[in-house]
Amino acid sequence: MHHTHPSLPHYDKTEWDWLRGALATVDRDYGVLNRVFHNITDTHVVHHLFSNMPHYHAMEATKVVKPLLGEYYQFDGTPIYQAMWRDLKECIYVEKEEESLNKGVYWYNNKI
């Protein structure tokens, strides 16, 4: 679920770099399950940026990183079951962004 969201790009080898790949994820609120999963669910962006950081520092790091990333920070507060249903319907496959200079950028689509 952290790598599947209508607003997340995917990249081929011409456009991918470490930072773009690390930021191609979204923090999600799993409610009480956030604690059960050691907050990897609501601090997933920081996990990608600092994968060696212990999970017990992730909440603090997320508070610091969010303002630094600005528009590049992704959070989805949609209730998890609604988000699952939306992503199942909208994120069927990825296709190239044709009308852009970034020919190696792909976006989710659902038109079959």
Can you walk me through this structure?
The chain has 112 residues and is an alpha+beta fold. It has one domain. It contains five helices and five strands, in the order E-H-E-H-H-H-E-H-E-E. It has a three-stranded antiparallel beta sheet, with no helix packed on it. A two-stranded parallel ribbon has the order 2-3. It starts with 9 loop residues before the first strand and ends with a strand. GO terms for molecular function: oxidoreductase activity. This is Microsomal omega-6-desaturase.
Provide the gyration radius in Å.
15 Å
Content-based structural category: alpha+beta
Q: What's the helix-strand series?
A: EHEHHHEHEE
User: Which sequence of strands runs across the widest sheet?
Assistant: 1-5-4
Mean pLDDT value: 90
Largest sheet: 3 strands, antiparallel
End-to-end distance, in Å? 22 Å
Dominant shape = globular
InterPro entries: Fatty_acid_desaturase
GO molecular function, one term: oxidoreductase activity
Protein name: Microsomal omega-6-desaturase
